[in-house]
Prior knowledge:
- 3 copies of one chain form a homotrimer.
- In chain A, strand 8 and strand 9 form a beta hairpin.
- The model of chain A has no long low-confidence stretch (mean pLDDT about 95).
- The first copy, chain A, has 2 domains: about 5-160, 3-Layer(aba) Sandwich (Rossmann fold), CATH 3.40.50; about 170-280, Elongation Factor Tu (Ef-tu), domain 3.
- Chain A is built from 6 helices and 15 strands.
- In chain A, the strands form 2 sheets. In chain A, strands 8, 9, 10, 11, 12, 13, 14 and 15 form an 8-stranded antiparallel β-sheet that branches. Chain A has a 7-stranded mixed β-sheet with strand order 2-1-3-5-4-6-7, sandwiched between helices.
- Chain A has about 280 residues and is α+β, with helices and mostly antiparallel strands.
- The interface between A and B is medium-sized, with 35 and 33 residues.
Amino acid sequence: MKNKLLVFQSDFGREEGTVSQMYGVALGVDPSLRIHEITHEITPFDIWEASYRLFQTQGSWPTGTVFVSVVDPGVGSERKSVVVQTDGGHLIVTPDNGSLTHTVVKFGVIAVREIDETVNRAPDSENSHTFHGRDVYGYTGARLAAGIIDFEDVGPLIQPEKLILLPLIEPRGSSGAVNGIIDIHDVHYGNVWTNIPSIMARENGMALGDTIEVVIENDGVETYRELIPYSRSFSAVPVGGDVLYDNELLYLALSVNQGNFAEVYNIGYGSGWTISLRKNS
Amino acid sequence: MKNKLLVFQSDFGREEGTVSQMYGVALGVDPSLRIHEITHEITPFDIWEASYRLFQTQGSWPTGTVFVSVVDPGVGSERKSVVVQTDGGHLIVTPDNGSLTHTVVKFGVIAVREIDETVNRAPDSENSHTFHGRDVYGYTGARLAAGIIDFEDVGPLIQPEKLILLPLIEPRGSSGAVNGIIDIHDVHYGNVWTNIPSIMARENGMALGDTIEVVIENDGVETYRELIPYSRSFSAVPVGGDVLYDNELLYLALSVNQGNFAEVYNIGYGSGWTISLRKNS
Amino acid sequence: MKNKLLVFQSDFGREEGTVSQMYGVALGVDPSLRIHEITHEITPFDIWEASYRLFQTQGSWPTGTVFVSVVDPGVGSERKSVVVQTDGGHLIVTPDNGSLTHTVVKFGVIAVREIDETVNRAPDSENSHTFHGRDVYGYTGARLAAGIIDFEDVGPLIQPEKLILLPLIEPRGSSGAVNGIIDIHDVHYGNVWTNIPSIMARENGMALGDTIEVVIENDGVETYRELIPYSRSFSAVPVGGDVLYDNELLYLALSVNQGNFAEVYNIGYGSGWTISLRKNS
């Protein structure tokens, strides 16, 4: 029994009609589809962010949900279009351009198929070369979510190892210390999220209530160095105070209580932004 | 027969994945839930605005709708989590931090229950302390809207008088005059809405077509004083002209036709922003 | 069998409760309606943009979809409220203020009815004069989408020729050249879309791979003149390069690859923004 959940992500914005066209084509496939979204506000062309948002959200969605992610600066070029089946029981429809990096590394994928666009393409869209989101990804995602086609009908299997991945630096721990990267921003509040699981901090001797020395470097240049409390939530420090906390995915994160950490300290994200944390003794 | 309507409000924004996680958890409870929203663009941490938007919108939604409001600067602290049953036949799930002020004062509530988080919390979320919107409020709202639990299953009854309320100044009328506060902005257009019902203006001798002297003070300091027409709609004055009108909730409101009243005259909102209106004779 | 699709467009924004009120009233008519949107981010009062977005999106939506468009600077004045039945099998509910211009000129309408507001108005909304989007348009659209009323129940027929249209300049072709206007922006990316069908370029001897001289004038004053490639997609030119391409509706369009054409060259849209393209020989 299909739950008919179809979840879109893109960098199209909602100011104009593009997203609506994708939804219209999908609902033309089956008007009873339950369409939702991760966000359509991915920074334009930011494949890293697209990859992170897929990772961030998919665990909250029920098994059988079909995701369609369209951050596609190479639309019209030779990049592949794929559907992956994840360990968590989801399908993700996306260009093969790195958007699956976090999903592959942190969750794992069971199988990958390249979309055969000769059969999986909206009728009468052959002359359209700049809107695969509507013509291929949205249409194919809708037919998968509606149960009109199965994963096997997408196209030929390809090796998961052939998927294009962005370079990710893995977190590491040692006694009293952990290090990793700034993986993303919680953009609305300006919180800064690392790729270091809270459990790794625990295993290396750091606990809530400790004071932690935090150092952030951008391509090796020190940008931030402070001793700050590791607390249960923002409200444990005064408004305007820096705090280390476990975010909603149970990774280490940094916040200025009711302020914008990323902006105040001018912090970016990605593999060039490394962070090390050490328990103060 | 449940209508399965679940309506969210938050200050999370839609730029990233947080709202999507709440929706995913709710749809994991029941994929046939009809999820809609008030807005996710509440000014961060602005409990007054959250309170007003709940008041503004709930009357338009059918009986049985479940609202989930998450403006929660105190997440992780000791503030209570509650569900209220309103006079209008709605349920509202929210932190008890003042978000229910306008609802209590203008509509009234029938009963309040504190959420027992030992039973009303998403599975495996015990270690998450910063995302009650997903783990407690969204999950509980979804189970109420789906009919899996009833209001009685939320947790123990508490006295409605114990709810935390922000200080509200009530409007008053006298012959030819009314006064009150600037209750909120119609932010997209910059119109300024008072807490004075249009009917109170009528009862005190003011009518459409009158010229009205409007005075706005911020903590007692005069910010605006003009004689302006009281008109049926914006288009009754030239573009750029000030106008007093009855807003969509039938309260007195101020507009610059096709302009931004709040910005032009630098007006805020809340109990510190008082307004008095007097019929010009 | 109704598909129950109801698609809204407005210039209300999503920052506050107005859109939610429209949706609540519609779902009070029938909670099983499938409400979606074109956008609520139309530039305030921009009837031209509203007209274009209706044109841009309606072709992607299935037959039977009901659109409600509320860009209504004249709310409360004597402008008519209408429902049109389009050649494509859609209904559009809107103020008669020019919002239907592109729909009429590019698709055609079969029949137009003026809304009889004595019967097609939300209960108890008689004293509300500034929110026809909720009280008349949303409510009537919902009852049409739900199948509670038919097109015949809307109100009296009026002549399609009586609809208010904005002045549109039609595109023209001659040997090796085409000209028209800048019809709209793809605002999120800053691409600039013309009203010249790609097929008209083909018929006048222009082909992918050609170099084209593009001239844009604003009320007769030259704003842009360049020789640029006519390519299959953005990625055919380097990042930062200008490119002419066929947009998703198969009209000629201009882009700076991963840049913002409209902003870089300060381009507007509408009948005052003319464009001519000539094949370079």
